[in-house]
Design a protein that fits this description.
Rossmann fold, alpha/beta, 6-stranded mixed beta sheet, 19 helices
Length: 610
């Protein structure tokens, strides 16, 4: 076990949108972990049995050494016995040594499934819970810090079990056995010397380790800051390049690393002080025990074998205790890491299914907003008493200036947030009374900024319906008019798209998004400013694909460019969270109101400058 090199563990800073360490005690954290391990209770019991066996064998080694030394001590009548007895003792010694290792390996082998199973269950539960949390949480979180929390928490499960089951509990068992043997076979002073030395050793170690926690905490805080900055910088690679700020980012990262280096050096100094103090206490206690044993040999109360046994006992005890500072610190930090992950798991869902929620019923895909009001923050309302209906199979478009609440309509329909007033219905059912999964299964979206997974083109299209065959993926790609482009690339559908799809152009990414939605084949489709990031040529080229995707589907089109919505069955003009106009394209132009002004202004902007 390493003592000077320390693994990075919590505590560390809480990034924006991340949960802080809870107020629960370490025992409460252990109780929270216990059910995950108790699923493997028979393995836990078997591991404990093997652990006791290993320690009994380990304690038997010094006893056997004592007998071996006493047997080898010259006596007048032992000439013949020397030919047989030492060989038997040597064989027994070898068997005990082997038994210690064998029982230890069996313990680890039996308990590995429990350790890995518990870590897997907790990690999977956290992963699922994070996906179940609201959009607000994910907009506020810092990815680097949060992934570090999960990584440390998972590692904390292994570390906590390893340190407690493989270090603390065996040491307690061995200590109990040794003190019992010393108390029964020799006088009580041996027990008192050992017990007092151990108490002083443990108090010193725990006290200094608690004091060192502040330095470790600072060190881990700085590590998390450096990690978050590195991840944030790499995620925004293009922006860094746009502004030629590579050296600026390297300087910020280096400054974080330098602060971490200084904190790590200070932490190492305190660790060296702890180690030195521990060695001094061990040396003093060993000298006292050997003095007492030597005096016993001189007085004839003890044999040379007794002296060897006492010395072996002390060495065996202090080897694991020598790492008590590391063990104690790692257990404390593992508990902190684990609790941090448990707090993340207990983060309340802003949007959750009703207790009696059932899947959407029926085939009616009519969408209705009824007197809907919503605000992300109470002081800044976004939507105010919005009411409209999208009949099944029809298209309704929403236009208006930036910040008017257009995209919020899509977020509310997806139930990323719940409305504060009014209700949203699909087929006459309030979406708050049905399962979120069934609502989202019924809706497909082509977003303004299509973000793809760093995987193949096939994977990204098939994401619309996991498990779809290659033939179905190609049919969707043909319908989105991107099949020919994919087929022309050297790897075809196995072409990787890069992080967030950066290897594809804006138009190509949009076509992949359309293909993905076509493959999902939902009854309701949302186009959230799906062409706003494209140039006019690409916009016109993709318009036909969008019309194909919307055919016979209930469609909500959120648009900035009015030219994309002229064929909608109804157009809503949203301004300041209020519908100020509604009607067909021709009817709105005839009103000579807000829509007509926007149309005229966009036509002027579209005219070429001579």
């Amino acid at each position: 076990m390493r003592r000077s090199g320390e693994a990075l563990s919590s505590p560390h800073p809480v990034s924006a949108g991340q949960p802080a360490r809870g107020d629960r005690s370490d025992w409460a954290t252990l109780r929270r972990l216990f059910p995950y391990l108790w699923r493997y209770k028979w393995r836990v019991m078997a591991a404990l049995a093997f652990m006791v066996g290993a320690k009994v064998a380990n304690v038997g080694v010094p006893v056997l050494l004592k007998n071996l030394v006493d047997t080898m001590t010259p006596k007048p009548d032992m000439a013949q016995a020397l030919l047989v007895v030492p060989i038997a003792l040597l064989v027994a010694y070898g068997l005990l040594r082997f038994s210690t290792s064998l029982f230890g390996e069996l313990r680890e082998l039996v308990f590995a499934k429990a350790t890995e199973g518990a870590a897997r269950s907790i990690s999977l539960e956290v992963f699922r819970h994070l996906h179940a949390l609201s959009l607000r949480f994910h907009l506020e979180r810092q990815t680097g810090g949060m992934t570090r929390d999960i990584e440390r928490g998972t590692r904390g499960v292994h570390s906590l079990i390893s340190m407690s089951l493989y270090s603390i509990v065996p040491t307690i068992i061995e200590l109990t056995l040794v003190l019992t043997i010393l108390g029964v076979k020799f006088d009580a002073l041996f027990v008192w010397i050992t017990a007092v030395a151990l108490v002083i050793y443990i108090v010193f170690t725990v006290t200094v380790t608690e004091w060192r926690t502040q330095f470790r905490k600072t060190m881990n805080e700085l590590d998390s800051v450096a990690q978050s900055r590195a991840v944030d910088s790499l995620l925004n690679y293009e922006t860094v390049k746009y502004f030629n700020n590579e050296e600026f980012e390297a300087g910020r990262y280096d400054a974080s690393l330098d602060r971490y280096r200084k904190a790590a050096i200070k932490s190492q100094r305190t660790l060296s002080m702890l180690n030195t103090g521990q060695q001094l206490l061990i040396a003093v206690s060993l000298v006292l025990m050997l003095w007492r044993a030597t005096a016993g040999v001189v007085d004839g109360r003890m044999t040379l074998g007794d002296l060897v046994m006492v010395n072996a006992f002390m060495i065996q005890l202090y080897i694991p205790l020598n790492f008590l500072g590391v063990i104690y610190r790692e257990i404390k930090q593992s508990l902190t890491d684990l609790d941090k992950m448990f707090v993340l798991m207990e983060k309340e869902r802003e949007v959750r299914d009703a207790p009696d929620a059932k899947p959407l019923a029926g085939t009616d895909s009519t969408v209705r907003f009824e007197d809907v009001s919503f605000a992300y923050e109470a002081a800044r309302p976004i939507l105010k008493h919005v009411s409209f209906e999208i009949p099944a199979g029809k298209t309704v478009a929403v236009v208006g200036p930036s910040g008017s609440g257009k995209s919020t309509l899509a977020r509310l329909l997806y139930r990323f947030y719940d409305v504060q007033q009014g209700r949203i219905c699909i087929g006459g059912e309030d979406i708050r009374q049905v399962t979120q999964a069934s609502v989202r299964q019924a809706i497909g979206i082509v977003p303004q900024d299509t973000v793809l997974f760093n995987d193949t083109v096939e994977y990204n299209i098939a994401y619309g319906r996991p498990g779809a065959s290659r033939v179905e993926v190609e049919e969707a790609a043909r319908a989105a008019r991107i099949h020919d482009f994919i087929a022309a690339t050297p790897k075809g559908y196995e072409t990787t798209v890069g992080e967030r799809g950066l290897k594809l152009s804006g138009g190509e990414k949009q076509r992949v998004a359309i293909a993905r939605t076509l493959l999902k084949n939902p009854p309701i489709v949302i186009f959230d400013e799906a062409t706003s990031a494209l140039d006019s040529a690409n916009e016109r080229a993709i318009q036909s694909e969008l019309k194909s995707a919307a055919q016979n589907k209930t469609t909500l089109v959120i648009a900035h460019r009015l030219s994309t919505v002229v064929d909608a069955h109804e157009i809503l003009v949203l301004e300041g969270g209020v519908i100020v106009e509604r009607g067909t394209h021709a009817a709105l132009l005839a009103q000579q109101g807000k829509y007509a002004q926007m149309w005229t202004l966009q036509k002027i902007e579209a005219q070429p400058v001579l």
